[in-house]
Every structure is written in structure tokens, then in C-alpha cells.
Amino acid sequence: MLIDGHGRTVDYLRVSVTERCNFRCQYCMPEKPFSWVPKENLLSFEELFLFMKVAMDEGVNKIRITGGEPLLREDLDSFIKMIHDYKPDIDLALTTNAYLLPQTAQKLKDAGLKRLNISLDSLKPEVAHQIAQKDVLGQVLKGIDKALEVGLGVKINMVPLKGINDNEILDVMEYCMDRNIKIRFIEYMENRHALEALKGMHGKEILSKVKEKYTIHALGREGASPSFNYTIEENGYEFGLIDPHKHDFCESCNRIRLTAEGFLIPCLYFDEALSIAEAVKKGDIEEASQVLATVLKDKPKENRWIEGELEEGQEVSSRAFYETGG
Questions:
Q1: Is residue 5 part of a domain?
Q2: 151 is in an annotated binding site
Q3: Which of 105-114, 193-202, 289-298 is the most confident on average?
Q4: How many Å apart are CA 45 and CA 228, to the nearest integer?
């Protein structure tokens, strides 16, 4: 069992397999040029898996594959099969923008993937184009349909932005409602890589939009999930809200993150990280385990953000979320 320095059990590992992405979303990497970390700097699937076996043997029972856009990494289904074959009962999920799902969903399902989290910020082609800086909506919707068709579990993530897609909160939720998909609204996470002019919506503002049409009741958090859940009285539909400016989900945080280059990150909102790359490249499991132990010991008690409006002196993450699957 993995225990951090504050007594929390860590049983969830998020693994980024690439920083590359085929979108240029305004809240993530709008001005990132199409230049990338050289392939030789990335850990191979075998090297990533070497560390992941250590984590699974020590009690990790949930793994999420992220990016960038993980479906851009060649032979991803083979990597997923490696994980599934080693521990068939592991909760194995993937976060994606769904653009490549029409041609990959079946292979992912066959390899052992169980669930997907998919970003869907708009149902209007022109707004989706504005956010992603690419004509994406038609292909994304096809990807969602294909995932459902092959039997993958699907959740939708939406980041409401003032003046851009804030008038679509109900539309996107009802799209999910019609398909029996859970949606989680995510407060925009300030970071130095995003478009400076962006303004996100506070959780209370998001809920007020839902309340314009529906009566909602708070359900609370489910386990260690950062999502606070609500139910709609009129039809029993359940949705979630992820509000990272609060600290109330930090007390039950159960996750660590591994980047494609081998950096082990204790918290998404901290810049500190230690590398396991040298250890796994030489097959030194003991050294990799020692790095893991240090990261767990130093895992922070809570994030550095503050609830409410961003104020002078408040932390703005310099972490590139496309490197860590933010």
C-alpha cells in the first residue's frame, strides 16, 4: 500500500504518454508551436510499464492514460493491453479529445480499456473551432458515438468560458442527458500557457445556469474524486462540478502523475517533480521505488490555489497541462 506524508492512501496513477496534441485549445496550449520533445526523450511503453508494475504491486488499482492527446501515440492499444494483461481487474481509463476515436475505439476496447473521459466544450461548430483552433466538432461527435457503440464507458468534461461557451452549459448537459452520459463541468484552471484574456466561470455561476431550468440537489463527493456531484430533481440525472480553486478535495487526494519523459508529479498544481527516467532506463526497480517513496513523502497537503477570483499574488500554475493530463 502506498501512503503519502499526510497519511493518505495513493492508489491512482495518471500516466501521460505524450505532450503532443492535434488541438490548440485556448485554455491549454493556444500558442504552442508544432515542435515536440524528441522521441528519444520519451520513455518507451516498456519503460513506463516497468514503473507502473511497481505501482500496481504496491496497491495502485486505477490507471488513467492521458496526454497531450494520448491517441497520437502509436500503438497505444498495445500499451493498454500490457497493463490489462498484467492486472485484468484494474480500473483502466483514458482521457481524450475524441477526434481519433472513430478509428481507434474498438481497438482500445479490445485491448482492455474500460472508460473514457472526453472533452466537449461546445455543440456549435464555430465555437468548437474557436476554442480548439481547428474544425473539430463533427469528428468529436462521431468519436463519442463510436465509443458508446463499442461499449466503452463515457464521461464528458466541459470547461465553461465567459463570453465563449457559457451560454451552452444547458445544451451540452442535455446532449449528455439524452445519451445517459455523465457530464462534469470544470472550472477553468489558470496557467501561464493559456490565452491570457480567458475568463472562466466560478462553480457557483455554472450551477446558477443549470438552476435556470432545473432544480438541483447536492450529493457530495464520491470517494476521492475531485468532482462534487449533483442530481436533477426533475429526472434524476446526475452531473458533477470540479472546482480546483477549493481545497476540500485535497484531503482525500489519492493520485500521482507520471509524464512521458519520466517525471513523477505529486500534485497537478505544484511544479516540483522527480524523475524516474534514469532508473527505468537501466532497469533499476529499487531506485525507481526510492524515487516513488520520496515523491509520496513530499506530496503536498493541498494545492496552492485560492477559492474565488484570481488576485494579485495568487498562484498561477506554470505547469503545462498538456504534459501532465491536467
A1: no
A2: no
A3: 105-114
A4: 34
- Segment 146-183, tens digit of pLDDT: 999 999 999 999 999 999 999 999 999 999 999 999 99
pLDDT at residue 141 above 90?
yes
The answer to the question of whether 184 is labelled as a binding residue is no
CA–CA distance, 100 with 112 (Å, rounded to integer): 18
**Residue 47 belongs to a domain:** yes
Residue 316 lies in a domain: yes
Strands lying side by side in the sheet with 12-16:
216-221, 227-232, 238-242, 182-186, 153-158, 115-119, 91-96, 62-66, 12-16, 255-258, 263-265, 274-275
Is 255 annotated among the ligand-binding residues?
yes
> What is this structure's pTM?
0.88
C-alpha R_g of the chain:
19
What is the Cα–Cα distance from 127 to 124, expressed in whole angstroms? 5
155 is in an annotated binding site: yes
Give pLDDT, residue 306: 46
Host domain of residue 50: 12-323
Let me know if residue 3 belongs to a domain.
no
**What cell does 73 get?**
501515440
* Cis amide linkage into residue 236, ω under 30° from 0: no
C-alpha cell at 127: 465555437
> Which has the minimum average pLDDT: 3-17, 55-69, 124-138, 193-207?
193-207
What is the CATH number for 81? Answer: 3.20.20.70
Does 176 show up as a binding residue in the annotation?
no
Distance of alpha carbon 138 from alpha carbon 117, whole angstroms:
18
Number of domains in the chain: 1
Q: Is 68 annotated as a binding residue?
A: yes
Kindly tell me if the per-residue pLDDT of 135 is higher than 70. Answer: yes
Conformation bin of residue 68: beta by default, left when phi > 0, alpha when psi is -120 to 50: left
Average pLDDT rounded to a whole number, residues 42-60: 94
Q: Does residue 267 have a known ligand-binding role?
A: yes
3-class state of residue 250 by DSSP: helix
Q: Any binding-site annotation on 27?
A: yes
